[in-house]
C-alpha cells in the first residue's frame, strides 16, 4: 500500500490523542483533586490535575472510621464472598453442561441462556426478594445476580474446547467426573477462571441496583450508595466534621471516588490480557 | 463412550432413563446450584406478575390480595406520565442509536489503521478501561466536569460566556446520557468490530489497490462490506433493546432534570411501584414492557441471525 499522506497522519494522531485524553483526563483529574488543598481548589474549580500543595488530608478524613470506612468494608466483604460463590457455582454448572451426552444438559443450558433474552422486571424481582426474606440483608447484594449466563457460556465453551483425549485419558485412569474436574480441567483453566472471577468481582464492586432496591438501613450500604449520597447528592459526611476544616469537601468527595476506582485500576492489567477472547466467545454463543 | 466400560456406540442408546441419570449423576448435581439460581431469581419472579392483575396489598401478599381484572392496565394507559415516560424512553434510545452506535465502528476503523502495534495496544488499553467503572462513579465524574461548579462552566465563565450546566438542562438530557455511554462503552464496543476487521481478506485490499482504488474507495468497497454483517447484526439487536435504556444511569440523574425529561419506563415502574406503593399499576406497566421487550429481542435475534449470521460466525471464530 502507498505511504499515508502527512495530513492524514496528523489528523489520525490528533484524533487518537483526543480520544486518549478524553478517557484519561477525568480519571487523572479525580486523582489529582483528591490530593488538593483548599487553595488548589480555589485556583481551579472542578478538577485539579496537578495540586501545587498536595495533602493527604482528604484520605485521613475518609479513613477516620466514619461512613466511608464502614461502606468500604462492606463492599470488600460482598465482593470477596460474592465472587467466590459465583465462581464456584459457575464452574460447577459450566462443567456439568460441558458434555453434550449428559442427560438433560441441553434443556438446562437453554433454561440458563433464555434468561439473557428477558428480564423479569423490577417489581417481580423486588417482591421475590421480600418473599424470600432477603430484604435488607447483605445476601440481597449477592444472590440476585449470582450467576451470569454470559460467564457461564464463556467457561463452558472453554471446557468444551479442551482436547477430548484429556477426558478419555482421565477415564482410562479411572477418574470419575469430579476427580477429572479438580485434577485435570481446573488446573488447565486457571487463566479463564481468573478472568471470570475478575468480571464477577468488578460487578460486585460496582453493584448499585441491588443495594438501592433491597437495602433500607444505611449501615449496610456498600460504597456505591455512599458515593451516591455524599458525592452525587452532595450531602456532607457525618463524622467528617473533625477533619473538615483541613480537607475541602470536594477533595473528600474525590478521595471517595478514587477509593472506588482504585481496585478496578489494580485488577485491570490482569483482566485486560484475556478479556478480548472471552468477550468474543460469549458474543457468538450467546 | 460416556460409559466406564467400553461398549459399542449403539449400546448407549439402550440405557434407560434411570441408568442414564445414574451415569450422569455427578455432572447433573454440579449444575444444580446454578439451575436453582436461574429458577429462583429469573423464573419464579415471573409469577410475581400476578400483581399486575391484583389490587396488591403488601401485608396481604399475592394470596389474599383482591383481583382487579385489567383495571391496572387501563389506569396506566390513562396516565399521561406513562406516555411521557414511553416518549422519553424512545427518544433517548433513538438519540443513542443514531449518535452512539456509529462511534465504536469509527473507533475500530481508526484503531485498525494504526500501523504501530505498541501504539494500538496502548490506545486499546486506555479506551477499554471505562467499561469497568460503575455508573455511580461515571455520573459523579461527569458532574465534576459538566455540573454547576465543574470544569466546563468555569471555563465558559472565564471566556466571558454564560456558565452553561448541561447536567440540569432537560433538553440536553438524552445528549448527556449518550455522551456518558460513549465515554463508558465506545472502546468496549470496538472489540467485536476489530475482530470482524481482522477477518477481512488482505488479498482484497491488494487487489483493489492494484486496480487503482484509493484509500476512500477501499474503505467503501472492501472494509465496509466486510464488516457490514456484524454492523447489521448489532443494529438489529440494539433495536430489540429499544425499551430498555440504562436504568442505573438514568435513575442517578433523573432528579437533576426532573421527571418530565428524565422519566423512562424503568424509572416510572420504580417510582410508582416501590416508592409510592402503587404496585398494581407499575407491575402492569412492567409486564407490558417485559412482553414487548422480549418479543422485540427474540424477533431481532432471529432476524439478525438470518441476515448476518455468516459474517458473525466467521468473525468470532478467531
From TrEMBL, chain A:
Keywords: Cell membrane, Membrane, Transmembrane, Transmembrane helix, Transport. It is found in: Cell membrane. One of its GO terms (cellular component) is plasma membrane. It comes from the Bacteria. Signal peptide: none annotated. GO terms for biological process: transmembrane transport. Its main location: membrane. It is a multi-pass membrane protein. The chain crosses the membrane at residues 9-28, 71-95, 107-127, 133-155, 191-215, 251-271. SUPFAM superfamilies: MetI-like. InterPro entries: MetI-like, MetI-like_sf. Residues 72-263 form the ABC transmembrane type-1 domain. Pfam families: BPD_transp_1. Belongs to the binding-protein-dependent transport system permease family. PANTHER family: ABC TRANSPORTER PERMEASE PROTEIN MG189-RELATED-RELATED, POLYGALACTURONAN_RHAMNOGALACTURONAN TRANSPORT SYSTEM PERMEASE PROTEIN YTCP. This is Carbohydrate ABC transporter permease. It comes from Streptomyces sp. NBC_00119.
